């Protein structure tokens, strides 16, 4: 059972407000202050500090948050598992997936896994890499498939697969099937995912390695839907960069074409991420192995 002072600390970490944490936990603000003060005495370190009137975690606070987040998640997961045993209800799995990883890579093996394990009930949250990691830190999900950039040292993670980022265009585009450098594409209208998207982050990183940025393109339009991007590109309105798995069906149907890029391919891993040092790491490892087998 998780100590109530730990719950208070994690609530403050999530809200960055003593008042908001008190409201969320249905306790008084002085009680929140007392709980934080107890933990600071226990660990002999300041856990929070104010900068420009805003509450921030100290280095010690970050360290404690990372350790206690795993304990809080394990406690919540243990409650769900015990409830499942005691009431004969199905096991509950809370999974996060970014849009590309979910729709084009992980969904099919997950469906096959659920067919093999009817006792498992899954809840899937979609979002960008940063938002899903926030849900993981808060204990709102158990694990996640993400394709974006993140601090891998802060989590337990494995590479589910490695995907290639490709430049897609309309089948009758002038550059179709012609090997080009990225610099040769700067005059093209570009459709990209919104900020926070893993696909966009990988593209921006690849551009930075070439001393370029999105600002180098003549015209950039942000589109939140991969399917809408593919429609606009198929109509000849511009180009896009998406993972190959997201466009391969349209390419096979001759609705899209891929512009070959000269030089090193843009590749990035799809990661299976969970909190470090979890008591349920063996179960997550078994889930990862099973999903890889079914991919």
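-> sequence recovered:
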């Amino acid at each position: 059972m998780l100590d109530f002072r730990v719950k208070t600390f994690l609530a403050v970490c999530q809200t960055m407000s003593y008042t908001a944490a008190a409201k969320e936990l249905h306790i008084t603000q002085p009680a929140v202050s007392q709980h934080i003060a107890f933990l600071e005495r226990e660990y002999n370190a300041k856990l929070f500090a104010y900068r420009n009137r805003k509450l921030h975690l100290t280095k010690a606070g970050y360290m404690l948050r990372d350790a206690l987040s795993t304990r809080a998640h394990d406690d919540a997961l243990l409650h769900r598992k015990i409830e499942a045993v005691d009431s004969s209800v199905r096991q509950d799995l809370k999974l996060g997936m970014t849009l590309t990883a979910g729709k084009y890579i992980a969904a099919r093996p997950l469906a096959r896994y659920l067919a093999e394990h009817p006792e498992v009930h899954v809840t899937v949250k979609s979002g960008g890499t940063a938002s899903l990691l926030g849900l993981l830190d808060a204990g709102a999900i158990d694990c996640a498939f993400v394709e974006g950039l993140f601090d891998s040292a802060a989590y337990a993670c494995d590479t589910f697969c490695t995907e290639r980022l490709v430049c897609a265009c309309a089948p009758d585009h002038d550059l179709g099937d012609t090997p080009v450098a990225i610099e040769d594409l700067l005059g093209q209208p570009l459709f990209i995912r919104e900020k926070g998207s893993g696909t966009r982050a990988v593209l921006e990183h690849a551009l930075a390695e070439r001393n370029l940025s999105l600002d180098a393109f003549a015209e950039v339009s942000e589109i939140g839907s991969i399917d809408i991007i593919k429609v606009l590109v198929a109509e000849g309105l511009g180009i896009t960069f998406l993972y190959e798995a997201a466009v391969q069906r349209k390419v096979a149907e001759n609705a899209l074409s891929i512009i070959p890029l000269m030089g090193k391919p843009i590749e990035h891993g799809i990661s299976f991420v969970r909190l470090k040092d979890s008591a349920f790491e063996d179960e997550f490892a078994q889930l990862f192995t099973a999903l890889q087998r079914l991919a």
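The first strand starts at residue 48 and ends at 51.
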